[in-house]
Amino acid sequence: MCRSDETALLGAFQEIRFYQCTVCQSFFKDPSVYLDRETEKQRYELHENDVDDIHYQKFVQPIFDAVIQKYSNEYTGLDFGAGTGPVITKLLRDKGYSVALYDPFFHPQTSVLKTKYDFIVCCEVIEHFHSPSKEFQMLFKLLKPGGTLFCMSELIPNNQDFETWYYKNDPTHVIFYSEENLTWIKEHFGFSKVGIANRLISLYKQ
Q1: Helix, strand, coil percent values for the chain (each to nearest 5)
Q2: For residues 127 and 168, what is the distance between their CA atoms, to the nearest angstrom?
Q3: How many alpha carbons lie under 13 Å from residue 160 in its C-beta half-sphere?
Q4: Which helix (H) or strand (E) holds 59?
């Protein structure tokens, strides 16, 4: 996250080493095990993300609710990392919102990254970032003043539960977040405030 060399080895689980940066407090996998682009895409293609699946819609409900509570459909949004089934975009468009799609694998139209948005949604995306510093900087720049970055990701459990934490075992999950680390992100990428409500993370731009 901060490109510091000051890291501590957390341990090796299933022969994969995990580290914690002592500066920005991010937890991450040894980069040597990151999947190559084609293998990563193949993993995502296995996801059965049907936008009409009521269970999938319920899963993204916190981020959907957060958007409609803060912004009316006169505001514009970006679904960043939309994946194969952009369910949040479907739900918001059903409510009359204008939402652009971007995903480096499935919606790679970089033209949508040349404008600014009132809100950005990243549902189960930030844990996949291979270059989190670059990506958070870009997301901040894509927000208009007064905009919000809404993310969903599972936060790191306390240390004694890390070994059995299922979330770290997904081969496409490479970086993990905590309240302390999210505060660091807020302070170092220019956000004015961070809100955390279970899996929902809201980063605000003044």
Answers
A1: 35, 30, 35
A2: 9
A3: 0
A4: helix 54-59
| Mean pLDDT within 138-152 | 98
Residues near 12 by beta carbon (within 8 Å), at least 6 away in sequence: 18
Q: Classify residue 169 by its DSSP letter.
A: G
**Helices 179-189 & 132-142 angle (0-180, nearest 10):** 60
d(CA 74, CA 178): 33
Provide the 8-state DSSP code for 154.
Answer: P
Domains observed in the chain: 54-172+182-204 (3.40.50.150)
The pTM assigned to this predicted structure is: 0.96
Tokens 């936008």 -> residue: 51
> Distance (Å, rounded) from C-alpha 55 to C-alpha 33?
32
Per-residue pLDDT averaged across 177-196, rounded?
Answer: 96
Residue 9 host element (H or E):
strand 7-13
Q: For residue 28, list its beta bridge partners.
A: 19, 175
pLDDT digits (tens, 9 = 90+) for 46-87: 987 789 999 999 999 999 999 999 999 999 999 999 999 999
